[in-house]
Amino acid sequence: MRVSDWVYVSHDGVRITGFIVEIWEAVVKIRITDPKNRGNVLMVKKSDIQEAKHALHSQDIRSLIDLALELKDEEWFNQLVRELRKRNELEKTT
């Protein structure tokens, strides 16, 4: 488990999708990407986390760009922006 990993967590009976922003010994901070609560953060126990294994969509990359900005990771930000541009160009040609 590391920062930027996509995860699922059940919270108040609802399955939430997000990505890890910070990790502590027993707790993880997740930025929620579900439309209803997009951008909010949630603190959960590590034991409640399930790894999300799926393909990234353009909106997911936008969320990761937000994370890269928050972490001030310029190299990762530039990589994500290039990936998003490639996808946008492909969408225009199809």
From TrEMBL:
Pfam families: IDEAL (PF08858)
All copies of domain IDEAL, residue ranges: 48-84
Protein name according to UniProt: IDEAL domain-containing protein
